[in-house]
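Justification of computing resources. Each target in the renewal requires a structure prediction run like the one illustrated here; the chain below, 213 residues long, is used simply to show the kind of job we budget for.
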Amino acid sequence: MKKLKVPYLTTLDVLDLSSVGFLMENKAQREYIDSVNWAEYPYKPIVAFDVARSDNALYIRYFVKGNSLKALHDKDGSPVYTDSCVEFFMRRPGDNNYFNFEFNCIGVCDASYRESRSSKVSITSEAYASIRRHSTIEKQPFEEKLGVYSWELVVAIPFKTMGLDPTNLPEKIMGNFYKCADETEFPHFLSWNPIGLPNPDFHCPEFFGEIYL
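Resulting structure tokens:
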């Protein structure tokens, strides 16, 4: 099981998301989404992420370089996993359920509180609005483009949106970070913490790693 420690950076909440890249590059914790868990999906784009926190939110900066780019969905709550997508799943201490936060390359989000893949409650429109996002790609939907593309996405997910009290954070949460693009020319299912299941499935809290806050 992988573990990471999330650095605390006091100035994150006062910066525009387009300006936090340099700070996170130098001060955040860098990890890689590089576990190819299923042999029938061997394609492996380059994926890294920087993670840090403020008093109020968890910040994740994703870096992706791969062989195509797709963003058909432009409304929150859409199935962005079919696009070029990065994801963060987390579970609170003592909770059998978990949250999934999924983002396509233009920053459109699909998020829910889940008992399982098939049993979920989507977050509210107010919760969606609370998640700050900045992509290096203009927020306009487009069909899949073939060729080598690089992009970055910064997201700031409030602790309250994750069901946590920012004034009394737990020592750690459980979670995993993913990269996928289900309905593209190069489908792939990469994870930060490895997944020991026979078929692609990110909805598996038993394979979450430890994220120390």
